[in-house]
Records
---
Amino acid sequence: MSEASTRAPAVLPARRPRGGVLRGAARGFAERAWLVAAAAVLWELVTRAVDETYFPPPTTIFRALHELWFGGPAAHLFLTDKAMDDFSTSLGHLFVGWAAAGAAGIAAGAAIGRSAVLRDLLSPVLEFLRAVPPPTLVPFFIMVFQLGATMQVVTIAFGVVWPVLLNTADGVRTVEPLQLDTARVFGVGPVRRIVTIILPAAAPKIFAGLRVALSFALILMVLSELVGSTAGIGSELIGAQRSFELPRMWAGIVMLGILGLLFNAVFMLLERRLLAWHTGARRLES
């Protein structure tokens, strides 16, 4: 009897039923939500006891949130007209700038990571540009692009391209040389090697860079709207601050925190699904 016939069959892990997955997700959410609820209750009690104008209680802040953005009809998902205007403006600029920076960062990072000549030539310039804080360039972007959507998108794209570019360059440098040598032996062309071998191998680091860039994009979205903008969450924030409407100002801050939490959760879910093959491959190797 051959060795292959006596080998025990591989046991595949049982797939969890969909109901079990949903129950597990709900249980995980409940285990984490209690801390948020406890913090909100403590915040409410302390702010009402102190009675400080600059720190309104959560109930006042959420009332302002409802009036500003979530007091609309059910047909519009309870979004007000102002919410439609502010969210479409802010999120439109955010995702356009993030997507443009992601595409440019992946392309430039792949080229720099695979070319020692480009890396040595461009490294000082890239390190110089990366060290320049994006807020200091806002006056320059205003002079070049004028106030408006273009200036805001460019501000976001410039600030968030670096995590994607550097992570991509680092990821493509760590591709196994054996994989590339095997591809060359089988006649795989340079473009196909990049698409089918190099970028998939670097995908975990690329996704890590995109995730960091998304959080930076949210910050720069607000920053770009603080100057000369008439719509958007940042514009609402600065307007509330200037008119000393503190509940509205805090409502904008809380809204940004909620958006950051949602962006991170959705991105992690997409990353887990899109990189499931990579996780499975690592388990097989181990």
---
Amino acid sequence: MSYVRCQRCGRPTCPECQRQAAVGVHCVDCVAEAARALPTTRTALGGVRHEGRPIVTLTLIGLCVVSFVLQLVLPDWTVRWLFQPYVAFFEPWRFLTAAFLHSPGQYLHIVFNMVALWFVGPTLENTLGRARYITLYLMSAIGGSVGSVLLATATDSWATTSVGASGAVFGLFGAILVISKRLGGDVRGILVLIGINLALGFVMANIAWQAHVGGLLTGGLLAAAYAYAPPARRKLVAVAAPVALGAVLLVATLLTYASIGAFSL
């Protein structure tokens, strides 16, 4: 039997349910009620500000790391989920799943991508809010794969395979460039970062620069919609912009596949 009463509601509370307050002890129900009553803090772009760790960014990094371990221990894990423009016509989930894979024999591949994700991800997660941020990341990942399809004929890469979160990360680069510009920040450092990383894709072998370009453009366009939406229409834009951009990516992809006669196969 508990002889300690909550200083707020007066009900008895057991030791496990007691929470130390500024004055006396509160029960867990009163603590939860007080938390719900606190006003929601929003960022300059209308995102809900969350205290503590960047949960979405940490989750994305965790998924990539877990997938990388599976690549090392399961021989067919990489082949099952990697991206190849021609194969993706028949297995469209590869447009997204490849973003959670990395080159098994090149540890620096995943290290560089995860460091870049940690470098820009928390800022965007906090500025946009978790829902818009995860939408931006996933759309950029898909946009990177779409870039590989749209440029496949020009680069003779229909059978070229690719893995990595680079397309999604470049989408975040594009997003932080647009958002920093919108908020009046200095974007010179971001431009240099993007320029160097884009250039590396053209001068180094085995880098899918097509995905970098696709992710960068997708992330930048979606971020522009988020950043420049009128405050009263931010919720509408948060839904309508990804849907509209997704439709554009889908149509462009289908038209590209149609140009090589994929539908007649």
---
Amino acid sequence: MGTTYLTRNRKSLAHQVRYALRNPEKVPAHARRAARDAWLRLRYPDHIAYYRAVMASDAARSPEMAVGHTSSLDRWTEMGRMQFDYLVRHGLTPQHRMLEIGCGNLRAGRLFIDYLESGNYYGIDISPDILIAAQDTLVREGLQAKVPHLTLTDDLTFAFLPDAHFDVVHAHSVFSHSPPQVIKQCFAHVGRILAPGGFFDFTFDRTEGSEHQVLHEDFYYRTSTLVEQAAKYGLSARFMDDWETLPHLQSKLRLTAMSDGSSA
């Protein structure tokens, strides 16, 4: 990622004007999205309820669009494969018990389910609409016999999950849509459900300038902010440099419990 990209403030009026002048064909779609989001925020002041409504709106048009802002099935497939291949190269084994936060319609989850031993995949999401789409994916891929667990959730306290159970926790493009309080809640509780030696991988929209958000949907964080916040809850962070070489504009961190002494 270039320095200019990482210091850009997408919320600033100057950036929005420049972007509109360079991409006039995208202005109508952005205006419609801004109007929709403003209306939904009025109806749902709580962020989880608000973003659930955003997902419902996107999923009604296309489940693939709801999890990747693109209606291209090829791109949906490509992004799922990229997540899967990366995690397998970086420690995931069939014997692992895995929790995927924001599993969506199983863009990557269908590959994880097929790879893991039966019953070892748990997927959670805030959107009932997208979980119905996930069931459709299971049927289409013929994965019913792998007995995956798909659960609707309202928060990231993981209160219904057992202690020290998951070897791998994975969240792709979740924190990029999460305000600070949601990330803090996740960090406060994820350590409890990690098995000894387990790790938590997540992507985020990285900025090296001012932290900001756009339309209360897209949030940009400095790496240091997330590393310091994780440390407050006994989690050590490693920046996954090689993820940066892949065709994806988000960055990735891996968290492990400091008490493990593992470098993952």
---
Amino acid sequence: MVRTENALLPIPVTETLYRGKPLTISSTTSVQPNVLLRTGVFTPAGRRTNPNDVKAQDLSNDLVSLDICQKEGYDLVTVRGQRLNIETDFKVWCGIVLVFSKYGYSSNTIKLTFSEFAKFCGYPSRRFDKNLRKQIGDSLGRIQNQSLTFRRNNTEKAVHTGMLLRAMYNGEADIVELMADETLWDLFLLDYQVLVNLRVLEKLPRAEVAQCLYLYFTSLPENPHPVSFERLRERLRLETSKKEANRKIKTGIQKLESIGYLSGSFAVMNGKQYYLINQRYKKLEAAI
């Protein structure tokens, strides 16, 4: 049973437009703002990754078109918080997007049962145990800690908000409550959005580099230019040597090829490594 603040009736919004075509959001597909896929918001969380490592990322070029920037003249946008992993945090974020797309945007606060929210995150009912509750609860905390700062260059004007304003989980009542900043609704309604196939991620268990590379490759336009390993290292934010990062990137790409999502070739140009994308198979239609 979903209840929205002020007893407002939920407004089903399960479809959005991508290049003029409807995109349906479900437990197996998610529509995501392109900026969250191509930038290092969700990254691999290796054993050497410090979970308390907090760094700011400049997303000004990607988010300057937001309504809040256009109205207030903000031209500097940064996101700051703990690193969000791909295995759990991205699933939970997809669940959050699905909740607000399905029951919003009539209210910025939505309450629902844990089982419904876990289903929205793509978890099967057999996983609904104490361990999953802790994983999702911890993930909600990490996402809620992602702060967004909007500033106007050479002025004292700024506003601070977040990807999620509040996340509450009541284990006794088995209720999840989510609060979003309604001034950022257009973060989820930008013209350029991407349909993410969560089944592709399921075919890449314990392969976080490959999963993040999938998010990046699926965000690229049709007939993309050759992708440099330098750009991929920037996207993945791997805390390792350049040589080891390149090895992990190549292995991740080969995993995407092996499951039938991607076909292409590696190349070296002017002493730098590139991947030349030939085809992306959104429904894993390539011959394996």
